């Protein structure tokens, strides 16, 4: 097995400032005669070819990042990186590099400044943090010197001093004057140096410098400096694009001139960030954080201004809801509203909530509900995206609107429109987004966060009354017949529905339990296990597994009565010996029943499928399930054959040996009972009580069971016996329904009781009759 400690990936930085993967191999560090020095060598793990052979230079800056990454530059345009599989391998090579350069291996960068004599002389004063920084003269002949001075990444303390000196000397204004001079003279070298200078100024990550460069009177000149990238033969025409191609569309008139100027500035600065500046290298990571923050706070300011303009918002939603608004105009309004909501989603939590309260007050949700009814797909997608952002931030606003909407037609309700859109959308990406959106609306964990503390019970009751049948309608329609349409789109839709129902099983308990049992929902879900699409089969199985995982006897009795394990066993048989996800999921279901000792389900599946279980021998789950069932059966049989006492069920519970008034009364074959005859409902109640309490009514049998009954399940023999005995019992006082069976002991039995030391309380009760 190869040594994974030295396994690495080799990366190089391409012209687009993106990392290219050059291959995977094993790294070593040794002396190379040809290079006359210690070198880093990587050989391919596929064919043994050399992927990298690099001499460790004494003056090259190597940087260690994230404990498994070493990055360095060779030459002007060659950035290299080694990504190690294990930290130990990275540490080993890093120690070799530090040993060659005479550095402490605990450092993360071996060189912070240039080591050549000229650079040391030039930066000697810069490195003296005790005094002010002296900038190179801002002259045309000094542009190259200025570019070298500002390049690299100086320490934070030095960076502060450089920024302060640039501000105090009005240095940026002087540089822009040189830019106009270079443009007039067509000084290409000077323009290239100015590009490097202003790029370095942005990467200094100083807010004070950004305020100067991004001011309205300097912004276009700064963009002009960034047009002349030395890596491109022709200058980029960014200013022409911003002035002639990019147009500001004022959907609604904005009377605030400062706000309009802020919108223009934000767009242009965003353009610099996204388009003009190159992606930062590994060394320049997080060096544009201040620029990103500048854009962020501009957006906050724009949202705040619009949020406070009541007339603007009122006009926006009035025109959006107007039936006479043309579709083209409405699309522009929707695009503007979508961008405004997107800006607002970047605010802090409290401010986001306040924003959505404000726009909801002006009619956001009725507008979105109306937009969902349009046939235009782009409008519907925009509406869904805005609702998703609203639900993520203030879900209580959406739920409150749904309950108070007052729509007489259920199909016009917002939540039902979302469900219909998910169902009709098929397998597109919108259906997945809508399923996630509906799940967020139904999530109890984000309920009761708003002013209405009863939101959970009220909304869930509303949803199950008005919307659950809309959600499950395709499932009932698809499984109405034994043969159903099993195409891919239908299966994806049913998969979304069953996934949502699984979520409800996990989080809603009471409401979903009633719905599942009353509508026989599990049977419909398991009917989809006949599908040829395995993702749908697994969804149905997951739904059943979630129900079984609750260990709720109501669900268990529902499964047993409906024989709902049958579709799972059928799918297991049809899957055969294939070792796949379906096989593992079914085995895990029965393993859970065995480990958690769910007696009702265990008895049911063993009685129905015992022989099949014994044939599955590649896992111990099924044999263990049968073994546990047989042990439980033997235990009950032994308990029954011991006899000697009876545990009686009554309408208030099971009598047990808890005291003189709750007696286990020793009986012979003669006994009395209540005047009422055993009715079918009572018999069912006895059985249910026995299941819930894990005990059974045991009646002594002096004679052994007939041979034909010995192999029957234990509960059957006792049920037959109890029914026959009780129905033949004589009647006693009709006014005493709680009276138990009274023993009339023989003399021999009394003697036995005396010898066995029965309690005085029991004797008093027996003798009292």
Automatic annotation (TrEMBL):
Family statement: Belongs to the SMEK family.
Keywords, sorted A to Z: Nucleus
Biased composition (Acidic residues): 744-756
InterPro entries: ARM-type_fold, EVH1_PP4R3, P4R3-like_central_dom, PH-like_dom_sf, PP4R3-like
Domain Serine/threonine-protein phosphatase 4 regulatory subunit 3-like central: residue ranges: 148-631
Molecular function GO terms recorded: protein phosphatase activator activity
Cell location: Nucleus
Gene3D superfamilies named among the record's database cross-references: Pleckstrin-homology domain (PH domain)/Phosphotyrosine-binding domain (PTB)
Name the UniProt record assigns to this protein: Serine/threonine-protein phosphatase 4 regulatory subunit 3-like central domain-containing protein
Pfam families attached to this UniProt entry: EVH1_PP4R3, PP4R3
Region (Disordered): 689-769
Major localization class: nucleus
Keyword Nucleus: yes
Tree of life domain: Eukaryota
A GO biological-process term: DNA damage response
PP4R3 EVH1-like domain location: 5-101
Record GO cellular component, one term: protein phosphatase 4 complex
Lineage: Eukaryota, Metazoa, Cnidaria, Anthozoa, Hexacorallia
